[in-house]
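Pipeline run #58 for the internal structure catalog. This entry was flagged by the ingest filter as a single-chain record with no existing model, so it goes straight to prediction. Upstream metadata was stripped on purpose; only the residue string is passed forward. Reviewer on rotation: M.T. Logging verbosity set to normal.
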Amino acid sequence: MNLLQSLAGVYDSQSSRAGAKREDTDAVLLPLFHTYLTAHITVTIDMQGNFLDACVLDIRKDEVYTIVPSTVESASRSGPEPPPNPLNDKLVYLMSDAGSYIQDKQMVLDIQKRCRAHEQLLAAWSLSTYAVPQLKAVRQYLNRKRTASDLIAANVIIPEEDGTIDEEKKVAGRDILSCVVRFRVMDQEAEEGYAAETWKNRELFQSWISYYTAFVMEQGKKDICYVTGEYTVCTGKHTNGIRGSSDWAKLISSNENGSIVYSRDWFREGIDAVSIGLVTSFKAHCALSWIIKRQGRVFGSNIRVCWDADGNPLAFDLFANTPDIQGKHEYSFFAGRDAYQRHLDVCFSEVLMDHRMFHMLVLDAPNKQNYKGRLAILDYAEMPADVICRRLKQWHRTACWQFTTGKRAFTGAPSAPDVVIAAYGTEYGGVLTVVDKTVFARQVNRVVSVILSAQPMPSDIMANLIRRAGNPCMFRERSHWMMVLQVTCALLNRDVAGESIMLDKLNTDRSYLWGRLLAIADYIERLYFQEAREGCISGVCGYMQMFSRSPGRYWGIIRRRLTPYLYKANRMRRGQHACRLMEQVEAMAAGQADADEPLGSAYLTGFSSQQLYFIQYDYAIRKEMG
């Protein structure tokens, strides 16, 4: 199944609820041949087209999301003369009395031209057999050509002293002429359930759908639809607004401003390259926009979405760490791998039998600033739900570690964003973050692709993690370095599946033992200073990068500098325990050959495991003392 075919199928399965709000999401699936705008002004009239009231909308408090009927041309409108929508639209299409209030004659001519285009479109619809009373009331009102006068009377537009309108003045934060006006039609004799708001009235939605479908099927040019294989009315103009009402980027387009982007050597027109049915195009674009708003993960201009045949999301969050994969924020700390494995078995038990096919799509745009141009499909794949969940479970089973940074401690795998932040993040404003959102988005998608394909983590990411975890002096805050260290250990643990997630006292690996020794020395130093240097990198850890290259040499230096700390440590219960551990590990490391050769990455897991051991030991002591 191709991408557009799957999206059109989603629309068909959800079409009965198009235009209606749902309890599970704020996203609204648009009715066929409709688009949405952000409204700034609401005009209220009665069924005879008489003006009643007008008000300015507050985008922070009012519901400004407005569904409006659209044509093929207006749904993808751009350029110097964008075509109108047939009902609710910008004031520049509705203010027929502009000549009485605007002094710029050329601007008045332009407004009148646009108003005539809107009037012709509205008249054709309202005079058809598909017209409804609400529609006729709006047409009667606009035919009176008093829009500007009524808005001035309602104090929506404040005129100048001479009675003219300054078109550059702001209403609801927008230039007056670019404000979107929507109509509410009051009916005193209406039955229960009547929706006065034209942007919520399902009878009005169906009226436009029926009229416009009949119109395009009679007037449109027919061809073979490449998506469905049917002989039907096709279009070369595809809708924009996929990511939002101000989004002008298109998924399918053939030219822009006269610059041809398809090959003239092969095709004379864009439709020669691909022809897509008009109805199929609308359905696919509306469904994609709805899915993005409902369950898309957005990183700047980069978007990843996942859906099944009905448009439903995956049961698990591909981007989350283990406590958040089901959205329940269940932070649990497990003493061993077996207990953690049983926890995962419970989490994934139901979905591993789910054989529904899921579609995964990654979109991005080259123009980051003004949402114009093209949308690119970076990746598209189809996978059964059980395969996705099996690989997701494998990630959380193997890439696990004990995490103690942040608000809550937990046992599990890091989130995809945390992996990228650990590998590429910088300290900015007191937090560790990736400042370049383009880099962040693309690297996060690389990590998610690794999870779904069960492939090794890319070598550049692993090299960055190991280098940064072994150089704590790069960080001002100790918590930031600890986060990088623990994420690195989780991914190193993934490469050696079955490795313990707790301290392995029987592990005699040379690098692991040297990492333990360094962690013990760090603990003894921090015991000496107690709270005085909380949150700072210790002097012992300042040697970490050099220690990893020549452990035998630098351990001697660290051991001598520990002398004053050892004197105080030996008078404390926790210090005595640490000193005994240091002697035991020194004895184990003493028999290792090549004492001064560079360490492998296992020294990081040894270091972190020993740190986690001390955290639990301190907790047990505090609990014992009450």
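catalog note: Residues 92 and 148 are 10 Å apart (CA to CA).
catalog note: Residues 602-625 form the longest helix (24 residues).
status: ready for reviewer M.T.
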